[in-house]
RNA sequence: GGUCUCAUCGUCUAAUGGUUAGGACACCAGGUUUUCAUCCUGGCAAUCCGGGUUCAAUUCCCGGUGAGAUCACCA
């Protein structure tokens, strides 16, 4: 297409024409849950897709709500998922500092520009006076607007009073990459606080300054900000800066679907999922497809595929519920996709205590048998304990089995004696064992359902286990012989 | 209450002005020489309601209804 072609004009630049700079800008008020992490993920994907830059900025302007250690939690959470940033508090960058509490001079400077241009004024009212304004508005069934009470001669702003934006109420329409065309009337615009009386700026003010100074191209944020966006548009105009590309992400809802996911309603620390045996690949896959899809029937996406295929215009407008069953399924899928060596590395902290002395090779062999059975890495002890420690015979388990329950214990015991004898001289690779077991079916005349179930129980005393020949081969000749003897003795 | 947003199986979603409304999770049933899991096959299950435009609406428009958000010296 030539440069001369008449193309329709839009009120924002199309994403393909610029190199994106996106940011995730959490406030350090505690751990991260899936809602916050998904916002970070989408911003990261937008940057990665077009070779852009992803920035981690910390918005710590509310000293009351700040929780010590939060920044480390946030960084650890993002890194666990595989989200890396190239500018941020810990790695620095050309627009440092990336922590708002260290940028107060910058905000003060811009605040003075607004004062000088007549677009900001000191707020002389006490909390009580403001409360009266608000109550009388409510009593008259009118919406409360601070701008109805602008002081005629505001005092000079010396930093001890809050500084308010002098808004210019009007209609707005704007395009949101996700939500489409949005519009509001002037009643959505009011005079909001720019700088608090403690000298710290409000989010409403400083995020706009920082996004501008840091060259942020795409502002992604969650849906609760949609109603405050007109105020931001008003402020962009007062500051004479271009508005960035705006993208509103739908909420992640709690499982009951009644409200957005929040810590108060039990939203888990994202790191907990790692401790519970979830893979970061599965979590990323899950979060990306919560509110986004590529239009095909693909369900499993690697980080590379997400980066290649992600686009904001396919993000859902409606909220999505957090469905842990789907996450669990995805985790199983990802566990099965990993190579044995890779899976083994990730299992380091999940083995049963009894496996502490086992060799890497022994554990790897066991792992290869249960890889298809793991839904989370935390299932490992339940599935593998009897490989590493002698199980205690429990003959009541035979009566839980439909087929075994019909057969007298003496007869079962005789079968075990036959099995022990047959396996005594068998080669002990999985294939030979299967041949031996098949022959045993012929000589005893028993159905596999009886014979195999019995042997399986006698060597594992576990409710479930891998295929019998694999299990026996992994346990080894001597262990199988001694466990069968123990079972026979306990009958 | 003002303002704003959203609405397809239970859940995540696809699609189109004309389709048997597709897939996945979950659930149910069957299969793979025992169990559990994997895997395979099958089943159940949806366009919120009412108008309008149209030959034709789930899709476009309007109005309801429902749900959510926001209305802080929080972000």
The proportion of residues forming helix, as a percent range, comes to 40-55%
What is the CA-atom radius of gyration, in angstroms?
32 Å
CATH topology annotation of one domain: Arc Repressor Mutant, subunit A
Put simply, the count of helices is 20
Question: What is the level-2 CATH architecture name of one domain?
Answer: Orthogonal Bundle
Largest sheet: 3 strands, parallel
Terminal CA distance reads: 84 Å
Could you give the count of β-strands? 12
Text of the CATH class of one domain: Mainly Alpha
The secondary-structure class comes to mainly alpha
Write out the strand line-up for the largest beta sheet, numbering strands in chain order. 1-2-3
Q: Give the overall shape, derived from the CA principal axes.
A: elongated
> Whole-number average pLDDT?
92
Assess the beta-strand content as a share of residues: 5-15%
Low-pLDDT windows of residues: 1-15
Describe the fold and architecture.
This protein has 20 helices and twelve strands. With 491 residues, the protein is mainly α. The chain has a domain at 390-490: Arc Repressor Mutant, subunit A. Helix 2 (70-81) links the parallel strand 2 (53-56) and strand 3. Helix 8 (280-288) packs across helix 10 (324-337) and helix 16 (409-424) runs antiparallel to helix 20 (477-490). The longest helix is centred in the N-terminal third of the chain and has 16 residues, at 34-49. The protein is elongated and about 105 Å long. Residues 1-15 have low confidence and may be disordered. The structure holds one RNA strand of 75 nucleotides.
């Amino acid at each position: 297409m030539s440069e001369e072609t008449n193309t329709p004009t839009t009120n924002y630049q199309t994403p393909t024409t610029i190199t994106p700079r996106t940011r995730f800008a959490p406030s350090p008020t505690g751990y991260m849950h899936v809602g916050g992490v998904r916002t970070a993920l989408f911003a990261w994907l937008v940057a990665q897709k077009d070779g852009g830059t992803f920035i981690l900025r910390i918005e710590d302007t509310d000293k009351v709500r700040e929780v010590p250690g939060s920044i480390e939690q946030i960084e650890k959470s993002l890194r666990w998922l595989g989200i890396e940033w190239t500018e941020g508090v810990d790695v620095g960058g050309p627009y440092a500092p990336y922590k708002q509490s260290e940028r107060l001079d910058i905000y003060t400077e811009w605040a003075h520009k607004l004062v000088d241009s007549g677009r900001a004024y000191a707020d002389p009212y006490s909390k009580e006076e403001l409360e009266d304004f608000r109550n009388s508005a409510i009593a008259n069934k009118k919406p409360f607007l601070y701008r109805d009470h602008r002081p005629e001669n505001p005092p000079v702003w010396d930093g001890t009073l809050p500084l308010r934006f002098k808004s210019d109420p009007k209609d707005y329409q704007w395009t949101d990459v996700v939500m489409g065309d949005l519009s509001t009337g002037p009643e959505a615009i009011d005079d909001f606080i720019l700088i608090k009386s403690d000298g710290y700026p409000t989010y409403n003010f400083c995020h706009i300054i920082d996004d501008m100074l840091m060259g942020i191209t795409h502002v992604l944020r969650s849906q609760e900000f949609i109603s405050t966006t007109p105020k931001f548009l008003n402020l962009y105009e007062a500051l004479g800066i271009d508005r960035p590309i705006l993208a509103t992400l739908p909420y992640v809802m709690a499982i009951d679907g009644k409200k957005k996911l929040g810590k108060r309603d039990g939203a888990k620390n994202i790191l907990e999922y790692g401790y519970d045996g979830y893979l970061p690949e599965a979590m990323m896959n899950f979060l990306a497809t919560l509110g986004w899809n590529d239009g095909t029937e693909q369900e499993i996406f690697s980080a590379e595929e997400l980066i290649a295929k992600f686009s904001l215009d396919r993000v859902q407008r409606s909220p999505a519920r957090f469905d842990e069953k789907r996450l669990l399924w995805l985790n199983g899928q990802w566990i099965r996709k990993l190579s044995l060596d890779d899976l083994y590395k990730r299992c380091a902290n999940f083995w049963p205590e009894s496996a502490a002395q086992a060799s890497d090779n022994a554990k790897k062999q066991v792992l290869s048998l249960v890889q298809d059975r793991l839904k989370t890495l935390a299932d490992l002890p339940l599935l593998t304990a009897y490989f590493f420690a002698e199980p205690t015979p429990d003959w009541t388990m035979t009566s839980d089995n439909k087929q075994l329950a019909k057969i007298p214990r003496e007869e079962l015991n005789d079968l075990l004696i036959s099995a022990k004898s047959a396996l005594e001289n068998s080669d002990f690779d999985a294939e030979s064992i299967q041949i031996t077991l098949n022959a045993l079916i012929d000589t005893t005349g028993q159905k596999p359902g009886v014979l195999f179930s019995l042997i399986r129980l006698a060597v594992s005393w576990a409710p479930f286990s891998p295929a019998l020949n694999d299990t026996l081969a992994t346990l080894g000749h001597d262990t199988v012989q001694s466990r069968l003897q123990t079972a026979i003795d306990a009958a």
